[in-house]
Write a structure and sequence with these properties.
The chain is mainly beta. It is 7% helix and 54% strand. A hairpin with a 5-residue loop joins β31 and β32. 11% of the residues are buried.
Amino acid sequence: MHGFGISTIESGLTVRQMPSSRRRPGSSPIVVLNNTMGWIPAFAGMTNQFGVLSRNSVFLNCWVTGSLCAVGASMNACIALLMLTCGSAVANVATSEAERLAELTRPQSNIEIGIGAISDASFAAGNYTGLERKGAYAIGAFDWRGDQFSYGNAADDKTRWRIFGANLGLNARSLAGEFDRQGAYRITFGYDEIPHRDSDSYQSIFLGAGSSSLTLPAGFVRASDTRAMSTLDASLRQFAIESNRKRSEIGVSYAITREWELRAGWRNDDREGTRIRGIEFGNSPGNPRAMLLPEPIDSSTQLVDASLAYTGEGLRASIAYHGSVFRNHVGALVWQNPFTSAPWVGPGTPLPVNFPLPMGQAGEAPDNQFHQLSITGNYQFSSSTRLTIVGSRGRMSQNEILLPYTINPGLAVIAPPQSGLDGVVDTTFLNAKLTLRPLRNLNVYASLRYEDRDNKTPQSEVVYIGGDVQLQPPPNAPTDRVRTNLPRSRRQTQLTLDADYRLAPGIAMKAGWEHDDVTRTFAEVEHAIENTLRIEFRRGGTGEWTTSAGIAHLARRSAPYLYNLPFLASYTSSAFIASLAAAGGCAVAIDCIRAGPMQRKFYMADRDRDRLRLFASYTPDTALSLQARLDANLDRYPRTTYGVTHSRSLSANLEAGYTFNASTSATAFVSHEHQRLQERGRQILNPLSAGNADADWWNQLIDKTSTFGAGLRQQGLIGGKLELAIDAIAVRGRMPITTTVGTGVTAAQNPATALPDVVARSDNVNVSARYAFDRHSTLRARYFFQRLDNADWAYPQVGAATLVNVIGSREIPAQTSRHGVGISWVRIFR
């Protein structure tokens, strides 16, 4: 009997016996269940397992006794027993198919609950994670989804909703949700918290840290410098510098018609905590006193967005509004002066001996707002031509009430010229991009970008008090303490042309040119032009190798660099400017050399940059993949004598992946970044004229960072229920600093020894496991190890009184070495 078949009405399955000519000698007959999807063999033995392949790839298992289906047995008896044994299973095929189909088409919900523990506390490791404390912590997360969907449900109105949360047991938690009806509307909301941990080793002499009023402790001995502050060390108190950001947001979108959609959103960011701020007090020519104070943070930012969008055949357009309102709830930071008035009073000053200078005050970030209207359009002329235009017009404003020049009694003579800044900046932005394909193998891209930042803030004369310790001069006096604010504006026009040509299948060349024109007001450089030429070759396709190589040259040239132009523009007294010209021995004021080094700002100075990009990918088979990337930049400043003269950067990366089998895979990577910066300065002996070239000094800073990482994945353990993953990352950073000085530099200004290298080391190991009890329950376990080791000479070598005019904060670099474990249970449900 070479074959026969029967059909089951319930499932549409056909049972067939494999012809004897296709069986191995001595083997049991092979019974196959056939449906529209194909054939699934089941080998008969002591117990035969029949796999049923449904229309949706759902398997149904049933068992029959092998002796009745052995060679020589009655096939009719075998089939009869088969139908009796598997009848109930065959009858349930439709139910099983529906369940499996629901798993594939309806999103699953899940909840995770567990507990973890950390061996040691680490303030730095809690930055953005909330995992800074020692001991146990809760693990909590969920993703809850709901809808009316079921296969063939005519009542489904396409309504869907979702609520999900993560890190619920930590102070880096997040919660979000959405509710929508497909094609009609969508509502979203979200809330998250992000902790920022700055320093737990900071120390301060002030009471009231964290508030806007800092006072000296009782009995503190004030002095002209830190060497005479006998109670300085005893007064230092440790205070953690940290802050938290809380964000709430909600968004709504509504489909008015098939083509029109309306969207609106609101977000609120609240920040509370402290940060470190450098404060200057006093001014005895060139030697002000300074401190690092704990500055309070208490601010909120509201963001509002609304848009109306149209999507039609070939055209997409939208009009949008964006608003931002910032409110700072800290008006000013006030502190008691720990220095005596001795350095700033007495002979040579207009202040009498023992003149009280008890308090200092510094302003905080002012309240401000920004409003912008924008229009976006995208039109598809044809399959090869597309135009995109984005334009916006905005206004920034700030008119916070100005603080008095000083809060020390007896010093204030003239009030500020106005109650507030009345600051206004108008912004204009336009970006147009055209994409063409004039030839079959040629793509052309052209874009024009225009940005205008027009500062309309009125100019006012400010008669300021230097360091809170000087008497005000009369208005219009020929002095450096009568200044005018400089409302800086900036205008930029950028034109870009790119062409991409396919030379052969899998081989292409891309070339481009970019022209950048920038104009500034009240700046050292009023006008600059930068041109960029680039070319790139790519080789790809279906072969083993994918490679690309690109080079670019950028050249920036500007108008004459007038380093003292903003300095002179800030003075309204013509008599003072004339005195500078006379002291400098020059007839033209702009040619005078002001006090200070003649360094040029690197982002404005003339620059030549050469850029190289290399990439290669090798995939000889489905198991192995290799990738390598190299990026290099070389910057030269041909007209900069003082300041940054050379800069180099190199970034190299190598990645490898290997799949041993369907269950085991491994990845590894190594990267290295190398940056080198060279700068030149000069020690000026005469404040108004340059010293000789022998007084020059050179600095070279090298920043080297290497990262190594590897990962291993193993699936299919313990009958396919267990998955293991191991990841390890090691980071090594080093920054050597080399200083060379000329023979004209005095010994007091020449470093006696070389500065130590700044070193940073970090190691992280993560091991995770997942064990699936069934399709709905999973047990997760995790172990991690963290180590952070930094060495920065600027911390341990600077104590509270190391610097004569600056009170140190005794901070130390972050050090971490700890272990952590966690175990959680995940349940999937609907």
